[in-house]
């Protein structure tokens, strides 16, 4: 099942034209403001952002959608290296997933906010659905392996 979701992520990666080798996971984490939160707490913030996006779409509130998208795009780094939540043998794959999903989710969050700002609510909803599928794909791939 994990391999299925990893393949889905690679297909999404190809669809958006992301080159995960442009940056290392270490560089990605270093580029973010560090927060005094764990990776789990960061995922809770990301979940709250997705709720804000969806509520903004339902209420046709483009600012709410933009604020949720900005939380995703500009999220902080946790107070530890994220890949340490999995066994050492899985860390290289987890780092690659971080690079892939971070870029995909940034693109989808931006697209969703742009559609909302244009009043294209059905398109915003479709884009938000793709964003949620990315979240679920990553979770399905890694949650069982988290320490």
What does this structure look like?
- It is a single chain.
- With 147 residues, the chain is mostly helical.
- It has one domain (2-13, 37-145): Four Helix Bundle (Hemerythrin (Met), subunit A).
- Helix content is 69%, strand content 0%.
- It contains 6 helices and no strands.
- The protein has helices spanning 2-16, 25-30, 39-58, 62-73, 91-117, 121-142.
- It is elongated and about 45 Å long.
- The two termini are 19 Å apart.
- 34% of the residues are buried.
- Residues 1-7 and 13-18 have low confidence and may be disordered.
Strand-helix topology:
Blueprint: H1 2-16, H2 25-30, H3 39-58, H4 62-73, H5 91-117, H6 121-142
Helix pairs in contact: 1-5, 1-6, 3-4, 3-6, 4-5, 5-6
CATH architecture heading: Up-down Bundle
Under CATH at level 1, the class stands as: Mainly Alpha
Question: What is the number of E strands?
Answer: 0
What is the tally of helical segments?
6
- Runs in which pLDDT lies below 50 for 5 or more consecutive residues are 1-7, 13-18
Fraction of residues in helix: 55-70%
As a percent range, the share of strand residues is under 5%
Radius of gyration: 15 Å
SSE run: HHHHHH
What is the overall shape? elongated
- The mean pLDDT is 90
The biggest sheet, with number of strands, parallel, antiparallel or mixed sense and barrel status, is: none
CATH third-level topology: Four Helix Bundle (Hemerythrin (Met), subunit A)
Termini separation comes to: 19 Å
| Domain module count | 1
